[in-house]
Amino acid sequence: QNVTGMTIVLFGATGDLAKRKLYPALYNLYIENKMPETFSVIGLGRTPYTDDVFQTKVEQSLRNYSRGPVHDKGLQQFLTSFRYCTFDATETDSYKKLNGLIEQRENELSLPQNRLFYLSVAPSLIDVITSNLTTSGVSQTTGWKRLIVEKPFGSDLASARELNEKLRTAFHEDEIYRIDHYLGKPMVQNLETLILVNPVLDSLFNHQLIANVQITASETVGVESRAPYYDKAGAIRDMVQNHMLQLVMMTALHLPRKAQPEEIRTKKVEIMKALRPIQGETLQDNLIRAQYVEGDVFGIDVPAYREEPGVPQSSMNDTYIAARLFIDNEFWNGIPFYLRTGKRLDKKSTRIVFEFKERPAEIDDYTPEGLAPNLLILEISPNESISLQVNMKNPSTDRFEPSTITFTSNSNNQPEAYEVLLHDAMLGNATFFANWKEVELSWQWIQPLLEAFKENELPLVTYSAGSTGPREARQLLAADHFKWW
Ligand code: BG6
C-alpha cells in the first residue's frame, strides 16, 4: 500500500522528540521508499528560524540520530521538503500564516489536501491548538486529515476525558492517532503473528501450562532534565498507564487467528475491562511504589532522585512501580501478571517472560535437583530476541542446570518505533495506536492508585540506584513462590 502525497504539520519542530526521533524516522522512511513521491513538512516552533537554518537542523538531527547511514544522494531533495513557520500557538495570526504556507506548498507541489498534524507540544497547548486548527480553517481540507497526539494524554481520568472531548470537537475518533511508541516496537507489533506462525509457541499458550507472566521495562537513566514533568507524573503515569498497560493488553490478546484491526481493538478493550481493579484493601498486597536513593550505575556514582536537579527534597514521587495483576477472563483466570518498571535500575531492558508450571512431582516421583522452570522470554528492547529456558544435564557434574537457547532476528538494523508508527498513520492504519476506549479504561484502572498515592495510603519504599529494584518487589513474587526473571 502506498502513502499518498501529503503535508505533515509538526507542532514542536524544535523539540527533543522531533530532533531525536521524528526527523530520523521520516528520513529512514524516505530512503526506504515509504514516503510518497512528493510531500511537504512544515515545522512549527516559537524560535524564529529561516528555512535554511531549519533544514540544517534537520540534517544535523539525521547525522546524529539516524539508525542508519545518511546518504548524500537524495538528502538535499529530502531536506527541501521542509519549511519552517515561526509560530505562537495562542495567536490567531500564526494560524493564518500557517494556512497560507500549507496552501502555497500544496500548490507548488501539486499535493492533495491530505494533512497530518503531529502534536509534540506541552499538554496545556493541545487544547488551544486543536480549537484554533478548526476555527482558522487549517484542518478543513478536501483530502484526509489526521492528528497524532503524543503522551501524556491527560494526567488523570477527568483530564483525559476533558482532553478527549476537546480533540473530538475538531477530529473524529478515527482521525485521532494517540501514539504509544511501545506499540511501534517491532516485537510488540509481531507478538500476535509470532504465536500464530509458530505452532510450537502457540501450543505453549495454554492455561494449564502458564504459571505467571512477567512484564519488565527497566531503565538505567534517571529523571534527566525532565523533573518538572516527571516529578508530577511519576512512573505510574509516565510508564504504567500507557506503555505497561498496552503491553499487558498486547500480551493477553491471544487471538486464535490473524485478526482484523477492529477485532484487535475490541479484544484489547475486553482485556482492560477484565483487568481486576487494585484498590482499597487489595492495594498494599498488590502494588509496590518506590523511589531511588543514591547508588552506582555501571560504576558511576549517581545521586538520589531527591537530589536530582529540579526535584524537591521532599518529593514523594514514584520512580518505580511493581504490581500483581489479574485478568478475570476465561483464559487468564488465576494466572498472575507481574509488572515492574523503574528508572535507575541495573539494566535497560524491556521484556515479557512467560513462566511455565513445574512438572508435577507426583507423576513418577522423579525430582532431580537443580531444575528451574521453563521460560519463554520475549526481549523487546534494546535487542529483540526470543529465548527458551530449558533444563539440561551438565555431563561433568551430572546435575541439571537451566540452559537458555536464544533466537535473534537476522536484521540488526530494525526500524525504529516512530518510523513504524508514522508510516502507519500516513497509511491511515490505527491498529497500533491507542484508541480512546483503551486510554479511558487505563486511566479508570489507574485512578484509584493515583488517589491512594496522593493520600499516602501506600508506603513509598526505596531502592538503590543501579540495583534490580526494591526488596518489597521481590517479596511480592516470593509471596506466590515465584521470583522475577
Ligand atoms: C517514555 C517515557 O514514554 O518512554 C520515558 O516518558 C521513558 O520516561 C521512555 O524513558 C522509555 O522508552 P524506551 O523506548 O527507551 O523504553
TrEMBL record:
Catalytic activity annotation: D-glucose 6-phosphate + NADP(+) = 6-phospho-D-glucono-1,5-lactone + NADPH + H(+)
Chain sites annotated for binding NADP(+): 12-19, 46, 151
Entry EC no(s): 1.1.1.49
Residues at the active site: 243 (proton acceptor)
InterPro entries: G6P_DH, G6P_DH_C, G6P_DH_NAD-bd, NAD(P)-bd_dom_sf
Occurrences of domain Glucose-6-phosphate dehydrogenase C-terminal (ranges): 197-485
Root EC class: oxidoreductase
Pathway note: Carbohydrate degradation; pentose phosphate pathway; D-ribulose 5-phosphate from D-glucose 6-phosphate (oxidative stage): step 1/3
Keywords carried by this UniProt record: Carbohydrate metabolism, Glucose metabolism, NADP, Oxidoreductase
UniProt: substrate binding residues: 181, 185, 219, 238, 343, 348
UniProt domain Glucose-6-phosphate dehydrogenase NAD-binding: residue ranges: 9-190
Function: Catalyzes the oxidation of glucose 6-phosphate to 6-phosphogluconolactone.
Family: Belongs to the glucose-6-phosphate dehydrogenase family.
HAMAP family: G6PD
Alphabetical list of NCBIfam families matching this protein: zwf
Designated name of the protein: Glucose-6-phosphate 1-dehydrogenase
